Amino acid sequence: MIKSNIKASPFIHGSENALNLHLDLLIGLLSVMIISVVQNGLRALTLCLFSALTAWLTEKIGLIIVGREKSTDLRSLAMGLIIAMLCPVTVPLWLPISASFISVLFVRVILGPNFKNLFLTPVIAWIFMLTVAPEEMTSYAVDVSFGTFSPFENINNDFYVTADSIAQQLQLKKELSYSFLDILTGNYPGGLGTTCIFIILGVCVYFIFRRSMAWQVSLSMIITVAIFALLINRTTQSPLFSVLYELSATSYIFVAVFVAGDIINAPSVTGAKIVYGVLIGVLTMAFRYLGFAEHCVLLSLFICNFFCELLDVLFLYLQIYYLRKRMIKR
Amino acid sequence: MQIIAKKGVKLFRDFYIDMDIKPYTFPDVLRLPIGFENEKIELLKTKGDRVKKFEIIANIKNNIPVYSSVSGKIIDFFTSRSADYAENMKYAVIEADGTDLPSYPLWEIKSGYTKEEMLEIIKKAGIINEPLSGYFTEYINTSTKYKTIIIDCVDDQPYDLSKTATLLNYQKEVVGGAEILAKAFGIPKIELLITKNFRTEELLKSKIDNVDFVQVKGKYPAEPEIVQYAHKTTALRVGTQCCRALYRAAFFGEPQISHIVTVWGEGVEAPANCEILNGTPTKYLLEKCSANGILERIVAGGIMTGYVISTEASLFRWDGALTVMPLKKHSKTYHCLNCGRCAEVCPMELAPYFILRNSNKASEKIAKQLCAGMCIFCGACSYICPSRQPLGQKIREYNNFLNGGSEK
Ligand code: SF4
Ligand code: SF4
């Protein structure tokens, strides 16, 4: 009997590959980083670079040690950047570096790709940073310009004026006085790369164009919080400002675009993506109303992530159920 | 009228190929596919027998005849595993002696036929309905009151224009075939499905009357939308080559012993549409189209759904394309990223990554739960996957396995 040469169709593939997806994420983050460096000075650059490099090296060396295939993607670099960007610019250098090391080691080396949806690297890093340096993680400097902080030295908090974050101010029912432009350009206290809404939304458009994000998650997160903000106005200003403040508080938009909307972490089925986004939004607002001002988004993400797979399966079976029903009808 | 395929992928489409059809040449040796082993093959000839052109070599299934496409001597029979169906195909090897004499009509010719007579001719002529990859006689539901005949001229895979070339070169025969079928079955309407932006659309419209045009737009694959449309309009769907064969069977008493194939791809210097006799080894086609140098990968049946074939092997009768492609050097696969793109593009609304994940636990229950059997093997999921997961291949293997086919 002649054996034929069994090769699988299709014999062509789309131009997109896994590397492109990681590269897109990196391009988005680098754009945000550049704006952050312009606004916060070279210290933002050192924090980002050291954190990214640590994450990358940890993964590279870690995978060699555990004997799994060598890392070929740029994802760990992106994770390192996200971790640094969640921190205020005044945090000591060792904090994002150690957070990157621990989270990448735990999530990407020890757990590996099979558990990637259970724990997100930035969320684990954030839990670590908040546990070991709660004060540094929640005190934000104001009136920062390019040369304010040294790129390498530790910064004593006597040397800068601090301000409450928007979340804290909302919780304390303080009168907020940031303009629309301040919010768009990132002129308010927050993580070093998470405040400039304008550039984050620009990157979001790029991601959507390149189909490299789960925009359904980000959009449903944003819409959910916007609805809450319209219904329960915690500011003394118009409902529009209520929406703006709630969206910009606690790095919400940044997390929605770069962490929750990350195509690799989000659920795969469209319905599940929407419900996942809504759940994060609802939990975030619930935590805010309960008084967890600074920690609500990542905490919600941490919780919702456990249901990611479940949501996928649920919606998949729903989809198949309707598909079958349609087929029977035909 | 339009049909829009919303789900699927956007593929490159290039129409710069001469649309004339090169006539067939006579190969010295043919490898004539007879039928799959499970199709109740009844051999009427044995090794060493002489056959004439149009002589029946075997009957398969319910007496569907398989004709010899040349005169010569049967030098062997062999069985080979078909790459895409994972079933064993029986072949006859015929040494041609060059004494082909026209010996048709093989049955009585009339100017019009009743439904029963038409059904008989379709069976006797062994006509293939190429969009459905099988014998036309098997796809006709005699109890259905069809309202429309759809002539399917949708070539939506790159490097395949066989249906279109057939229509352009044999308009009279294609439309004539559909008309005689419509008359016999009492079907009032004929529609022609063509792909959007088809450069000869205007030309066709000016040449073909009595037929309504339906444009097929959107992504690849258009198949599910066409099936749905045919169902909605209670239509009998026939390929252009099938219509032509029908015409020749009805007016010349000739069985279908040839079909048209587009030979193209990066390794072909002179791409062309060629008519080939059933059983012609691919090397004759490749020589005809100046495929030179090292032929790295030869794909039969379309680059999205086809299978790799050797130069000695012959095509199935429904394969409309033969493509010579370079080997992909950098087709490294990564872990599934869970991005869901495969599910987004699946025209059948399946979840390929999920089927792939569960394909190791090959159980009928899981396959049924995930509707793996509904896969149409279009390859859109594999095409779009950024991790280069062999989704289409795995799902096909999974289905074959569950249908009692090959081992996984
Ligand atoms: S699962 Fe089947 S039908 Fe769906 S895209 Fe893949 S090959 Fe096509
Ligand atoms: S497209 Fe590929 S990488 Fe994405 S979910 Fe499907 S199999 Fe996984």
**Number of strand elements of chain B:** 20
**Strand portion of chain A:** under 5%
Could you list the spans of chain B in which at least 5 consecutive residues all have pLDDT below 50? none
Report, as a whole number of angstroms, the end-to-end distance of chain A.
Answer: 42 Å
**What is the tally of helical segments of chain B?**
13
User: Main sheet of chain A, how many strands, which sense, barrel?
Assistant: 2 strands, antiparallel
- What is the name of the CATH architecture of the largest domain in chain B? 3-Layer(aba) Sandwich
Largest sheet: spatial strand order of chain B: 2-17-16-20-18-19
- Radius of gyration of chain B, rounded? 21 Å
The counted number of beta strands of chain A is: 2
The greatest interface between two protein chains, and residues involved on each side, is: A-B, 43 and 62 residues
Strand order within the widest beta sheet of chain A: 1-2
Domains of chain B, number: 4
Low-pLDDT runs of 5+ residues of chain A are: 1-6
State the shape of chain A. globular
**Ligand species:** iron/sulfur cluster
Mean pLDDT of chain A: 85
> What Rg of chain A do the Cα atoms give?
21 Å
Biggest sheet features of chain B: 6 strands, mixed
Distance between the termini of chain B: 44 Å
Which strand-content bin applies to the residues of chain B? 15-25%
Attribute tags:
heterodimer, A: 330 residues, mainly alpha, two-stranded antiparallel sheet, 15 helices, 1% strand, B: 408 residues, alpha/beta, OB fold (Dihydrolipoamide Acetyltransferase, E2P), Rossmann fold, Ubiquitin-like (UB roll), 4 domains, 5-stranded parallel sheet, 24% strand, binds iron/sulfur cluster
